[in-house]
């Protein structure tokens, strides 16, 4: 019994020093590309094809700043519309970054991956494009366009250095009701 008692600290020390990967944890995050595909916030309905945000939309844009508070973001990109730029602007200001503009009519998910490989990107887009980027990066068609009234959903996609990807549709549940 005394031998067991004396060897227990030694066994605990060996276990604590084990540097191998733990079950359920990634082995290596190097080369991981992370995308947050975010729909623009609530838009005004009385301003034509390129409207500004509503007051609720402005609050939602600010809520993204809180969401990303403890997250590293390397790039903040937006389509070139008032509503998407205005949704991205508070996060860019909080991170002291510029909003990069992409052409929503021509860019593809694979082009985004090629350009931003190994980075974390918050991309602000539209209800019928952010799902397409997610699907393309996963090489499937799981996700449909968001409902026109759905401003709560976004997509989170991670792509490993070897090209394996995982994506999920998440819900923004941090807006005050």
Relative helix content: 25-40%
Strand content: 15-25%
Tally of contiguous helical segments: 5
What overall form do the CA principal axes indicate?
Answer: globular
Total strand segments: 6
The Rg value, from CA coordinates, equals 21 Å
The H/E string reads HEHEHEHEHEE
Widest β-sheet, arrangement of strands: 3-2-4-1-5-6
Largest sheet: 6 strands, mixed
Rounded mean pLDDT score? 85
| Class of secondary structure makeup | alpha/beta
Given as residue ranges, the uncertain stretches (5+ residues, pLDDT < 50) are 4-28
Distance between the termini: 61 Å
What does this structure look like?
- This protein is 33% helix and 20% strand.
- The termini are far apart.
- Mean pLDDT is 85; it is low at 4-28.
- It is built from five helices and six strands, in the order αβαβαβαβαββ.
- With 177 residues, it is of the alpha/beta class.
Short description:
With about 180 residues, the chain is an alpha/beta fold. The protein has helices at about 1-15, 55-65, 80-95, 110-115, 130-140, and strands spanning about 35-40, 75-80, 100, 120-125, 155-160, 165-170.
């Amino acid at each position: 019994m005394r031998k067991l008692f004396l060897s227990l600290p030694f066994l605990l020390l060996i276990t604590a020093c084990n540097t191998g990967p733990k079950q359920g944890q990634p082995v290596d995050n190097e080369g991981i590309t992370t995308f947050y595909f975010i729909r623009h916030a609530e838009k005004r309905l009385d301003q034509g094809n390129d409207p500004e945000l509503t007051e609720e939309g402005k609050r939602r844009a600010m809520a993204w700043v809180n969401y990303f508070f403890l997250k590293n973001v390397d790039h903040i990109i937006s389509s070139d519309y008032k509503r998407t730029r205005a949704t991205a602007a508070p996060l860019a200001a909080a991170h002291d970054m510029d909003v990069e503009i992409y052409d929503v009519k021509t860019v593809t998910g694979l082009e985004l991956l090629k350009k931003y490989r190994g980075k974390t990107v918050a991309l602000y887009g539209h209800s019928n494009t952010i799902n397409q980027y997610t699907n393309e990066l996963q090489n499937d068609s799981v996700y449909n366009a968001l409902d026109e009234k759905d401003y709560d959903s976004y997509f989170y996609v991670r792509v490993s250095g070897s090209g394996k990807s995982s994506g999920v549709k998440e819900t923004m549940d941090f807006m005050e009701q």
